[in-house]
Amino acid sequence: MRTLILLALVGLGAQLVDGSLGMAYGVTSTTLLLAIGTNPAAASATVHLAEIGTTLASGASHWRFGNVDWKVVLKIGLPGAVGAFAGATFLSTLSTEVAKPVMSLILLGLGLYVLLRFTVQGLPARSEKPLRKRFLTPLGLVGGFMDATGGGGWGPVGTPALLASGRMEPRKVIGTVDTSEFLVAIAASTGFFIGLAGEGIDGAWVVALLLGGLIAAPIAAWLVRHVPPRVLGSLVGGVIVLTNSRTLLDSDWIAAPDAVKIPVYVLIWAGWAAAVAWSVRAHRANKAEALAQAEDPADGTTRDPADDDLAPVRAADPA
């Protein structure tokens, strides 16, 4: 029972992060399942089964708050489903001894990306570049494959790419990525069921993760306009880096002694603390700048002080 309660809390926390950042539900949940000894393929399958429900609820909540671009959902979600099915099939063929360090390595890379992306850069500036199918299709394929093989990756791949494209405002990028993940979750789950025949998948764990995510989904959709993404991204990225570094150092690939592990952990903790502190300062500075610009828009632009790390939005035409 204690394990199920913990899983429900993890599902709740992961969905709050995912619904606010557009990433990290799968990465966070899978990292925990690996840490308690779950088979890598079964861990990813468990998370993706739970995501069928959480992404449906999250998508509905984001749609209610006007955070979804349905054209982009289909253009990125369908190729994402193809990539996810292929990734699930691939992961199911690997032995546990090989799959666990491979998945931890992928998760470590994604965690480093999330940590550095939000600490150093925050959310990128907007522009008026168009979103084309030739950009969205390969993005969906790569994101879906990474999501299934790494137990997460749809958000870390898709969200920054769409933000960088500049066509959509951040809240719609997050809502669109979360909504399209429903197609990815279905395809990945189907691939795992074919590859694993249901072996190693605990239905109670799926329900626990799902319940936590369902509770958090509408809250996250509302918080997306208020939470500081830069700080949250640094916090979550550090958790993922620390946990998967431990898994890799304990694996048969490395089998590092304590004399090596302890300095590595100290370095990670120190870097993580510095990253969070930097993000907090940057958030406060950007907020102060936004407030000053809103009071005196010398360049003819306006900016919503409630948003964090956002580029100026063009003022509405008075005509």
Automatic annotation (TrEMBL):
Stretches that traverse the bilayer: 72-92, 98-116, 173-197, 203-224, 231-249, 261-280
| Source organism superkingdom | Bacteria
| Localization | Cell membrane; Membrane
Phosphoprotein as UniProt keyword: no
Q: Which UniProt keywords apply?
A: Cell membrane, Membrane, Transmembrane, Transmembrane helix
Q: How does it sit in the membrane?
A: Multi-pass membrane protein
Identify the stretch(es) annotated as Disordered: 291-319
- Family to which this protein belongs: Belongs to the 4-toluene sulfonate uptake permease (TSUP) (TC 2.A.102) family.
Could you identify this protein by its name?
Probable membrane transporter protein
